[in-house]
Design brief:
Number of strands: 14
Protein name: Amino acid ABC transporter ATP-binding protein
GO biological process, one term: quaternary ammonium group transport
Order of helices and strands: EEEHEEHEHHHHHEHEHEEHHHHEEHEE
CATH topology of the largest domain: Rossmann fold
CATH superfamily of the largest domain: P-loop containing nucleotide triphosphate hydrolases
Number of helices: 14
Helix content: 25-40%
Bound molecules: adenosine-5'-triphosphate
Keywords: ATP-binding, Nucleotide-binding, Transport
Oligomer: single chain
Number of domains: 2
Radius of gyration: 21 Å
GO molecular function: ATP binding; ATP hydrolysis activity
Pfam families: ABC_tran
Strand content: 25-35%
Largest sheet: 6 strands, mixed
């Protein structure tokens, strides 16, 4: 668990972050979201002490981070940024294996792990293992950065726009893969993003900031359905609920059980926003959900109002 208590940062008398209170529960993914200059990156960097707070404190598992040596603190916290800073003289595999090599882990086990992680982030190990960072596109380099952070296996990951340089399709794929890994490994993640879709899609909780203060902190559906202020409503936009549906498969919202094969059918892997389109087009409030062509359950209009249980 990470606790930010009355955290402040001022630059020449101007507050970049003010009286910020935020608790990041263990194993959850929290997105720091907000307009440019609202203090997201400053907040993130105070967590691993790349920046020293002007006031307040950060607790990691109940311990004041000022009592820890910065290098000890950072060993337990991966840091992924858009300009990844891969080592140019090392190949991709060596870059990913930097921390395991430093820690003296078994070489063969590390190599296997590196290949697994490269495949996981969508880079074919045979093609990319021996390439140098200079031979990679921005998006490929970004994936190597994510693989490297995961290879170090820290309990906490801090990420600043980690998927920013990717084209939309690749971004969605890497986001999905990352989310799946994060849940499986129960990493605690704090991610800075200005991409609303990314925050709503990936985060367990979204911290929406404005001018250095926290405006609202809660699960995505809370911000969407119970915005604390007009700013929250406007920032997320009127179509926030639809966007959230677009990020969820029908399988996450459906009711499993017997289904009427006579109704319009949608595949369980379809996204819920498209399923809604089918309801509207067909004038039906219930659809049959199929998997491999077989009916496996139903999707009701009412199911689209509630976010899937995690
Ligand atoms: N080293 C610095 N000196 C002076 N002011 C700074 C410094 N770093 C950041 N700021 C100011 O602090 C505020 C918050 O900056 P920060 O980078 O945290 O914002 P952000 O929300 O991450 O923005 P973006 O989405 O554009 O990256 C901004 O107004 C910025 O101009």
């Amino acid at each position: 668990m990470i606790e930010l208590q009355d955290l402040e940062k001022t630059y020449g008398g101007v507050a970049a972050v003010r009286a910020l209170n935020l608790t990041v529960p263990e194993g959850e993914l929290v997105a720091l979201l907000g307009p440019s200059g609202c203090g997201k990156t400053t907040t993130l960097r105070m967590i691993n002490r790349l920046l020293e707070p002007s006031g307040g404190r950060v607790l990691l598992a109940g311990q004041d981070t000022r009592r820890l040596k910065p290098e000890v603190l950072r060993r337990g916290m991966g840091y992924v940024i858009q300009q990844i800073g891969l080592f140019p003289h090392l190949n991709v595999a060596q870059n990913v294996a930097t921390v395991p090599a430093l820690l003296g882990h078994d070489r063969r086990a590390t190599q296997t792990r590196v290949d697994e992680l490269l495949a996981l982030v969508g880079l074919d190990p045979d093609t990319f293992r021996h390439k140098r960072p200079g031979e990679l596109s921005g998006g490929q380099a970004q994936r190597v950065g994510v693989a490297r952070a995961l290879a170090a296996d820290p309990p906490v990951l801090l990420m600043d726009e980690p998927f920013g340089a990717l084209d939309p399709l690749a971004r969605e794929r890497l986001q999905g893969a990352f989310r799946e890994i994060q849940r499986r490994l129960r990493k605690t993640v704090v991610m800075v993003t200005h991409d609303i879709d990314e925050a709503l899609r990936l985060a367990d909780r979204v911290a929406l900031m404005r001018e250095g203060t926290l405006v609202q902190y809660g699960p995505p559906d809370e911000l969407i359905h119970r915005p604390a202020t007009d700013f929250v409503r406007q920032f997320l936009g009127e179509d926030a609920a639809l966007r959230q549906l677009a990020g969820q498969p029908v399988s996450a919202l459906m009711r499993r059980g017997p289904a009427d094969p006579g109704r319009p059918a949608v595949d369980a892997a379809l996204n819920a926003r498209s399923a809604l389109s089918v309801m509207v087009r067909e004038g039906q409030d219930t659809l049959t959900v199929t998997q491999d062509g077989q009916p496996v359950g139903t999707l009701h209009w009412a199911d689209l109002h509630t976010r899937a249980p995690r």
